[in-house]
Amino acid sequence: MLLELEFEALKLQKLSEIESIQEKKIPILEYLNADSIKANVKETSGEPNWESFKSIISECKSAHRRNEILVNRRIESIKSALNTLTGENKDDELEMYDKLGKLAQKKNSKGILEA
Fold first, then answer.
1. Is the pTM of this model over 0.85?
2. What is the pLDDT of residue 7?
């Protein structure tokens, strides 16, 4: 399944594979979104094969959400790293360690150490 390949490529951060998979997914999504398919789905919703189709779509939905979660977590991780590097997360409480590996003491706005 393309979504499984996409997940593996996302985990390994293989951008060329991800792009290739996206190119393969677009025609499938366009096909599934076509008006003729939508009409056909409405007509065949009572047939036995319908349950099989719904099961496949449900699996695809779950796999897509898993991939989406992975992408969103990576984005948040990158944003957090960039904020830390640029010093833009001043509102966040960061615990810093001194050279001895102990929590560094914090200074208030007046330069006085706080407990």
1. no
2. 95
Angle subtended at Cα 1 by Cα 75 and Cα 53, rounded to the nearest 5 degrees? 110
Q: Quote the CA–CA distance of 113 and 115 in Å, as a whole number.
A: 7
Dump pLDDT digits (tens) for 95-105. 666 666 666 66
Domain layout of the chain by residue ranges = 2-86
Contact 45, 104 (CB under 8 A): no
Q: Is the distance from CB of 10 to CB of 71 less than 8 angstroms? A: yes
Structure token digits, residue 3: 């979504």
Task: Count helices and strands (H / E) in the chain.
Answer: 4, 2
Query: CB of 9 within 8 A of CB of 21?
Result: yes
Q: Are 113 and 107 in contact (CB under 8 A)?
A: yes
